[in-house]
Automatic annotation (TrEMBL):
Superkingdom of origin: Bacteria
Protein name, entry field: Cytosine deaminase
Domain Amidohydrolase: 40-399
InterPro entries in UniProt: Amidohydro_3, Metal-dep_hydrolase_composite, Metal_Hydrolase, Metallo-hydrolase_Enzymes
GO MF entry, a single one: isoguanine deaminase activity
Length: 430
């Protein structure tokens, strides 16, 4: 006797007609035509059953703050930072918590059940850290939230940043962050990488650093991050986020850099929506995309997870909390259009990001947590194309959210009376 059986599901690996049984909040069986009873039975209707979406790079302290104190007129990264610097002294714990919880509601509705958020610890009040720690506790029953101590204004550049970062880690933030390209000099940036990696090694913490979020091909702090990862024995615990300058680097240098990153067992976290919006601002034409070399990083075996980064904040006036939007943009910007490549991008918003975040019990295998999303699509490639409704979102086998299928009714003479988007999927696409 199971608690729940989802019948006739399609899995991301292509298996169809699968019944997925849940007992005690875990997946207890996956097989076709399962002969068993359950307290609840749900017909998946052949739709795609996926593990939940995972966002390895977000800024929950800034989310939903668009227009405060005013709009970003230039649309640049630096104006966004300046606006955030004006807003930061006025932030209250209550407002931060309220906005973050509202975003988590949206995330759950999109099947997004794990988020790594960078928390700006530049303000010595550390109200952002206090607020996000409270949010982490409150959403724990339905969303896993990891918090990065992020010195937004620079670890050495901003007065008091070193002490504030240390205090934020003492308060309970999970991960050491940094922003070396925002230090005053390249030398200071390299020093910050070394100092922050030493802190992580001493405390036994992971590292996730904003690294080279610039069009400058000579911004090469990712090289230093890889070297310090090896020096401090942090292999498998370090991620470089953005890595935008790799877009503009010459190919010979990159041919050296990517193997160094692989040797350091680093992960890469591009943020396609925000990278494409902010980078290339000083170009006329041709205009650079500013998105790092995703196919080449994947080919080298480097785990690549795609982040949302921002939703309705000083840096990005768009965003929906939908990681399939992120994969959809990455597909176009990287021209990863084959079936194999689409599957790789689907993995980048699910299993890869779960691996980067070290999520335990994640996946669609017997013994894993019964955390699942039923999508109105037939396979991962179609999920990216359609960005379909989340018919069901489950955590530990309990339904958290559900959405009716998208079906349009037609009144066209001699034509079908309805349109269901998944029906348009080509059956022989590879």
């Amino acid at each position: 006797m199971f608690d729940l059986i989802l019948r006739d599901a399609t899995l991301p690996d292509g298996r169809t007609g699968q019944d997925v049984a849940v007992r005690g909040g875990k997946i207890a069986a996956i097989e076709p035509g399962l002969e068993a009873e359950a307290g609840e039975v749900i017909d998946a209707g052949g739709h795609l059953l996926s593990p939940p979406f995972v966002d390895p790079h977000f800024h929950m302290d800034a989310t939903l703050s668009l227009g405060l104190p005013r709009m970003n007129v230039s649309g640049t990264l630096l104006e966004g930072i300046a606006l955030w610097g004006e807003l930061r002294p006025t932030l209250t714990r209550e407002a931060l918590v309220e906005r973050a919880l509202r975003y988590c509601d949206l995330a759950v509705s999109k099947g997004l059940l794990a988020v790594r958020s960078h928390v700006d610890v530049s303000d010595p009040r550390l109200v952002t850290a206090e607020a996000l720690i409270e949010v982490r506790e409150r959403v724990a029953p339905y969303l896993e939230l990891q918090l990065v101590a992020f010195p937004q204004d620079g670890y050495f550049r901003a007065a008091g940043a070193e002490a504030a970062l240390t205090r934020s880690l003492d308060m309970g933030l999970d991960i050491v962050g940094g922003i070396p390209h925002f230090e005053r000099t390249m030398e200071d940036g390299a020093r910050s990488v070394a100092a922050l990696c030493r802190i992580a090694a001493d405390r036994g913490l992971p590292v996730d650093m904003h690294c080279d979020e610039t069009d400058d091909p000579l911004s090469r702090h990712v090289e230093t991050l890889a070297a310090e990862t090896i020096r401090h024995g942090l292999q498998g615990r370090v991620a470089g986020s953005h890595l935008s300058s790799m877009h503009s680097m010459d190919n010979y240098y990159v041919s050296k850099l990517i193997p160094l990153m692989a040797e350091a067992q680093m992960a890469a976290i591009p943020n396609p929506l925000i990278n494409i919006m902010l980078q290339g601002r000083h170009d006329t034409y041709p205009k650079r995309r500013g998105l790092t070399r995703i196919p080449e990083l994947m080919a080298a075996g480097i785990p690549v997870g795609l982040g949302q980064d921002c939703v309705l904040d000083p840096w990005y006036s768009m965003g929906s909390g939908d990681l399939l939007d992120v994969a959809h943009m990455a597909l176009h910007a990287t021209q990863m259009g084959s079936g194999v490549e689409k599957r790789a991008l689907f993995d980048a918003v699910t299993v890869n990001s779960a691996r980067i975040m070290g999520l335990e019990g994640y996946g669609l295998e017997v013994g894993c947590h019964a955390d699942m999303v039923l999508l109105q699509a037939r396979d991962p490639a179609e999920a990216i194309r359609l960005r379909p409704n989340r018919l069901l979102v489950l955590r530990r086998g309990r339904v958290l959210a559900e959405t009716a299928p998208e079906v349009s009714r037609l009144t066209l003479e001699g034509r079908p009376d309805s349109v269901d988007p998944p029906d348009y999927a080509p059956r022989n696409a590879i």
